[in-house]
Each structure stands twice: as C-alpha cells, then as structure tokens.
Amino acid sequence: MGKKRKPLPTEPVEAEITSLSHDARGVTHVDGKAVFIPGALPGERIMFRFTRRARRHDEGVVTEVLRAAAERVVPRCAHFGVCGGCALQHMGPDAQVRMKQDLLRETLIRIGRVEPERWLAPLRSEPWGYRRKARLGVRWVAKKGRVLVGFRERGSSFIADLSLCHVLRPEVGERLLALAALVESLSIRERLPQIEVAQGDGPTVLVFRVLDPPSAEDEAKLLAFASETGLHVYVQPGGNESIVPLPGQETELSYRLPAQGLELGFEPYDFTQVNLELNRRMIDQALTLLEPESGERVLDLFCGLGNFTLPIARRAGSVVGVEGDGGLVARGRHNAERNGIANVGFQVADLYGEPTAAAPWHSQRFDRALLDPPRSGAREVLDPLVATGVRRLVYVSCYPSTLARDAEHLVHEHGFRLTAAGAMDMFPHTAHLESMAVFER
C-alpha cells in the first residue's frame, strides 16, 4: 500500500505574494515550497487556504486580502474567479500589459540567453468586447434542470454558470442566457456539446455541434432565434467538412485590413485571430519591422489564409506563403485573387516534417521572412530557413517559451542579432502572451 496523503490544513495561512506564475497565479512560499494562488497579485499580503498538495508545489485559494497591490481593481465580471475564461480581471489593464512585457523579458533571458537591442512598446487594443472567435461549452445539467452555455470553470471540466461575458463581442456575450434557453427548448439538448462563434467585420455565425440530427421543430426554433437576433445558424454533425448553414442562413465571413486595402474571407472553422483590432495593429507593426522592398522575395511560414502574406505582397517584389492546412492555402489563393494580388504563391507543406519536392521553398532564395507558428514554435524550420539566405526575420509568437528557445538557436547557433521584441495583448484579462521579435544577420 502507498503512503497515505497528509490531509490538507484547514486553517488559513498568512503569506506574502512575491511574483506571478506564467499562468497568472500568485506565487508564495511556505516552508520553502512554492504555493500557487489564483487571484493574488505580487506585493500583496493575503490569507489563503490550501486546496491541493503535490510533490513539487502546492495550490491554494485566497480567503482575504490583508494588503492589496496598487494594481488591484474590482473585476468587471460577476463570474470572475469561477469562470476559467479570464485570469486577470483583478489587475488593471495597464498593469496586465506591463506584466506581460516583463514576462517576455524574463523568458527570453532565462530560456534563450538573449535580450533585444531595443524593446518595442507593447501592442494593445480595447480590452472589453474584443473576442470574435470562441468555442462555448454547452451542457444540460439535470440537477439544475437547465442548460448552461459558456466557458469551463477554472480548473474544472464543468461549464461555468454564466449570464454574461464581457470579453466576447456583445452580439454573443450578452445572449448567453438566451442561447441556453434556446438549446434547452430543443429535443437534442443533451446531444449538443458546443457552439462555435465566428465573426469578422460583418455577420456573426454560430455553429451548433450536434451529435444527433435536429428535428424539423428544432430547426424551426433555431431559425426563429436567427431571425430574432440577426445571428446566422450553422450545424455541425461531424468534422469541419460537415458544417452547413440552415436554410437561408448562409453568409460570407470576412475581415478588412484598411491600411493595406485588403479584405480576407474565411470559413467558420478557419483559424483567424480572435481580436481583430489588435490583429490590424500587429500586421502594421510586422510590415514596419520587416521593411520589404519592391525588388525583394519574402517567405511567410505558417501563413494560414494569408493574414500576413497578402499585406506583405502589397510592398514586396514577390511572396511565398507556406502552410500545412490545405484548406487554409486554398483560402489564401482565393483571397489573393479577390484582392487582385498576383505576386504571391502558396505552398502546402508539413512544416514539422522533412522538406519535400512538393513544397520547394527550402531550396529557393529569399531576402526576408515572417514566421507565425503555433505554440510548439518553429525549431524544425529554422535551419532550412537560414539556408534560404534571409537577412531579416520577423517572428510572431503565441508562446514565449518556444520563442525564447528558437531565439537562442538563431542567435547562438546562426549568428543572428535579436534587434527588437515586444509583447502584444491579443487576449486581455488572460495570461495568454503573444509577442513579436525581429532577427537580423
């Protein structure tokens, strides 16, 4: 038999919060062991109660704030602390941005052994009502006798009991109870696990994931909701390819990039940035840092549907976009055509696999490049990318640890300089940190 786990102490403990973890939990130490406490801020004196003990660290919950940090504010949302959608509403927006810039600096130095020659001012936008893409959980809860629609509870698989969401666009964030009532009225309420939200500059699409086909009466209720709200209703019985609009609900999703004179279309299931205003500012900054010239060839790896590729093509001699998702590449080609851009080519390639003749970017020469990889980073493409001869590289990151790892490789193995870097607050009130860095030979 294994050793019995010690029971958790029941009495609250007084502690000083020294820092924030990468997921925005307050950090203190009790008897030399780290304790992670959501809702606590650096510099605060708190009382907390233990909720979990593990070999390497413990976890707790705030019971009282004895001395509040200057950065502490009253959360706007009544569900903050229960809903897992936000982690930082108790910290003012300015302080959140400073914290993310500090975390980027610390990560680059600790993991990458690098620091930029200059820091870019953090990019930010309106911190409320910004979210245009989301996956909402749906669950019929027999004990409550009703349906819940929202994000998951913090640290749990349960759906939070939400009436309102301040980070979603109001078209959806103010209709969570109406959505719950709609699902509750359907015959398939127990066979509808999620609703995908997709919005560009125009209409909002709701994709209802259905494990059983909706009845004719269900369809009538969904269509009535669409007519009443102006939202467009699609259903998804299987994979992404099965998504279809209900009769009369088909619409085109697109977003504009006014500074570049572009409009990009997308499908509800395509990857697009959740924060459109920040995305526009991010593209403007990337173009300023990349500085493509009219006679140059530019490579855009992990290009998606052309979010950076097409703006770059407005300035460069030619651009090659490379992406592993064939559907996104098809969308990129269509977006180039709809915007009258002829100096761009798209290639489908597994950027984490071995280079193949089918995607010949690795055997061509380029002057500049942009990378926008997923959380796992871009380590696998760095050596072949350097071999193309690029002199300047803009790296757009959604995970600081892999950016730091890749920065170490570029700087210490390939002799690049990290000339600039800065945080981007794509997801206000969350611990999620996007950033941009520039490397030059």
Quick summary:
By secondary structure, this protein is an alpha/beta fold.
Euclidean distance between termini CA atoms = 60 Å
Q: Could you say what the CATH topology of the largest domain is called?
A: Rossmann fold
Overall mean pLDDT: 96
Query: Strand-residue fraction?
Result: 25-35%
Shape: globular
Number of helical runs?
Answer: 9
User: Mind describing the biggest β-sheet?
Assistant: 8 strands, mixed
Structurally, how many domains make up the residues? 3
Give the % helix.
10-25%
Going by helix content, strand content and strand pairing, the class is alpha/beta
Instruction: Indicate the radius of gyration in whole angstroms.
Output: 24 Å
By CATH reckoning, the class of the largest domain would read Alpha Beta
Going by CATH, the homologous superfamily of the largest domain would be Vaccinia Virus protein VP39
Q: Note poorly predicted spans.
A: none
- The side-by-side strand order for the widest beta sheet comes to 7-21-22-20-19-16-17-18
Q: Count every beta strand, where a strand is a DSSP E run of 2 or more residues.
A: 22
CATH architecture descriptor name of the largest domain: 3-Layer(aba) Sandwich
Written description of the protein model:
By secondary structure, the protein is of the alpha/beta class. The chain has three domains: 1-72, Nucleic acid-binding proteins (OB fold (Dihydrolipoamide Acetyltransferase, E2P), Beta Barrel), CATH 2.40.50; 97-126 and 274-440, Rossmann fold (3-Layer(aba) Sandwich), CATH 3.40.50.150; 133-199 and 204-251, OB fold (Dihydrolipoamide Acetyltransferase, E2P) (Beta Barrel). Helices cover 23% and strands 28% of the residues. The chain has nine helices and 22 strands. The protein has helices at 93-112, 170-173, 176-184, 216-229, 276-290, 309-313, 326-338, 379-387, 400-413, and strands spanning 13-16, 19-20, 26-30, 33-37, 45-53, 57-67, 118-119, 133-141, 146-150, 194-199, 204-209, 232-236, 244-245, 253-257, 262-266, 297-301, 318-323, 344-348, 368-371, 392-397, 417-424, 434-440. The strands form four sheets. It has an eight-stranded mixed β-sheet with strand order 7-21-22-20-19-16-17-18, sandwiched between helices. Strands 1-5-6-4-3-2 form a six-stranded mixed β-sheet, with no helix packed on it. A six-stranded mixed β-sheet has the order 9-8-10-11-12-13, covered by helices on one side. Helix 1 packs across helix 9 (400-413). The N and C termini lie far apart (60 Å).
